[in-house]
Write the structure tokens for this entry.
Amino acid sequence: MRLLERMRKEWFMIGIVLAIAGAKLEPSIGVNGGPLKPEITVSYIAVATIFFNSGLSLKTEELTSALVHIKLHLFIQIFTLAFFPAAVWLFLQLLSITPINEWLLKGLQTVGCMPPPVSSAVILTKAVGGNEAAAIFNSAFGSFLGIVVTPLLLLLFLGSSSSVPFTSIFSQLFMTVVVPLIIGQIVRRYIKDWLERKQPPFGAVSSSVLLMIIYTTFCDTFSNPSIDLDKFSLLLVLFIICSIQLSFMLLTFIFSTRNPNAEDRVRRPRVPLFNIRPLAHLPPGADPPGKRARANNKVLDGVKAEGSEIDEANRITKEAVVPQPCIYVQDCTYSSEDLYL
């Protein structure tokens, strides 16, 4: 039973392994032009589904409040489009003296110059309880910036230039990211009560769509007959990618713990945002000094509270002369910025 429960909780990681294995066994199904038609179903429908799903699940005030987090947006874009490419370039200079395939190193640098991923960034940020609204904005904004910034980075670090179909990329991003998000928000206004009552599994839907994207991506990789790499270089590059990923995740965590904004923290998975538990009823005048004020402040500062929760805390604070059950809030958050994988 424990194994089944564990598999149920980690179904997404198991799904990634199965998607890669399926792509290896039969890559022809998910290649461009194959039965799944990923050039349409993935490039347009899958990405649009993810952002429509986000538009349905997010409250409008969460999206609008995310727009004013200037420091957060600057941190993410500078880290993604400036610091990370430069750090990868320095690291690859050290690896250039090793017998690793030169084209693998160039491929790593190319990936390092890419803008933040559009779909996986949003889904994985939501999965760990991060600020999904901020992830949506930075994924979209970073992708638009990447149209201009990425070719310049490739020219700087690799000395190669390329032409970018600006109009087609811009229109595709607009139609698959912005439009579905807006439509999702409009639909939410009409079925808001039903969504709050039923609480559909938005996260599971988006994660399932991401598995399809992963599957078709690896189908393209395994169907390429021109891949001829020695196992040493391939395994070493895999180790390098995992090391870089973990190192920069730790680095972003350290930076983000200095941010006092509770809305940009990442919560422990599967733990409620807060717990409100009743204490003993207090007779008039027996309220310990400052206890209710501290409870109120903890709701306001410790968690991302809804308006009703703030009003309730204020009411308890003001009615100190009336015997009311005092509350305390068990904070279940720890700081971390949204992690872009």
